[in-house]
Design goal:
There is one protein chain. The chain is mainly β. Helices cover 6% and strands 41% of the residues. The chain is built from one helix and nine strands, in the order E-H-E-E-E-E-E-E-E-E. The strands form two sheets. Strands 1, 5, 6, 7, 8 and 9 form a six-stranded mixed sheet that branches. Strands 3-2-4 form a three-stranded antiparallel sheet. A hairpin with a 5-residue loop joins strand 2 and strand 3. The two termini are 15 Å apart. 23% of the residues are buried.
């Protein structure tokens, strides 16, 4: 996993629900939630299961590997960027950016791996780049 400086990445909004996620990201670890009641995995970080509403949840380390489920390339922005849903190997999907790639070569089902990009506040933000399986 590598780090890339990208000064236009906004600082994350850290709160009580997602602090564990951002603390892990600062160590270049990707975490997601898993419910101890219904046993479903989920993302966006929160202290309750969005599927069964149980507060009995745990944080799980992700492999950092996944595949593009859906994506779009925003070319009208001052600096074009790719926004995607990535389905992690472990099951949950997360909205993220795809970086370090040729946007014209992206495809649904493409293998990706996590990279940590430095934000304006120097916090590390997980994003993904294409990789070989």
């Amino acid at each position: 996993m590598t780090e890339q400086f990208q000064s236009d990445v906004p600082a994350p909004n850290v709160d009580l629900d997602n602090r564990v996620f951002w603390d892990a990201a600062s160590r270049r670890e990707l975490k997601f939630g898993r419910c101890c009641q219904c046993h479903k995995s989920y993302f966006y970080p929160r202290h309750f299961c969005p599927l069964c509403l149980s507060a009995d949840v745990e944080w799980v380390s992700a492999s950092g590997r996944g595949e593009i489920y859906s994506y779009t390339v925003m070319r009208r922005a001052e600096r074009p960027f790719a926004l995607a849903y990535v389905r992690l190997e472990e099951g949950p999907s997360m909205m993220t950016n795809i970086v370090e790639c040729d946007f014209d070569r992206l495809s649904i089902g493409q293998a990706v791996e996590v990279v940590f990009v430095q934000s304006k506040s120097e916090a590390l933000v997980p994003m993904f780049r294409p990789t070989e399986r």
